[in-house]
Amino acid sequence: MMTFEDLSTQLQQALGDAEVSVLDRTGTMDHFTVKVISDAFEGKNLLDRHRMIYQALDAPMKDGRIHALEIQAKTKNEAQGG
Amino acid sequence: MSTPIEDEINKEIAEHKILIYGKGTKSAPQCGFTVETMEFFNKYGYPYELINALPSPEKREALSKMTNWPTLPKVFINGQFYGDTDVLGPMEEKGELQPLLKAAFPDQAT
Which end of chain B is more exposed for a tag (fewer CB within 10 A), N or C? Predict the structure, then answer.
């Protein structure tokens, strides 16, 4: 099983300054929504931002701890509505 | 050199202006995200194809490699990969999706 903390830690390790919030979509702790705010996304399109997140979570996605992931990826500026 | 399975995928991408690789079929989708993606396109009224990637692990593997994207559904519009509704939704909000669809279906008034 993957805790919110595991998930956040893995994303923060991969994306440096990331602010991560996680939601359990189904109550089964394997369908998550992650909202990630990081300046590592600056200048990157959504496809590449999502790829960065998938890469950071490659292991738990491959072994099935994460079954499904809904992603929102923003830079700090975008998150402030700027 | 492309493999036969990549050739098959490329042919499917070329044949369908909007193509979803998902889990299940239109009449019996087997994944909430696939349903979400169908609903997303239903509201536009353009024809789309849903291809079930579940029966072939080789095809899923080839698709993931070609797109550098690990999950299903995978959406192609006019031959171009656009990820899933987490990408298409924000594009829609910014008004970037509508022109893409119009360009894919120049003959339709929708």
Answer: N
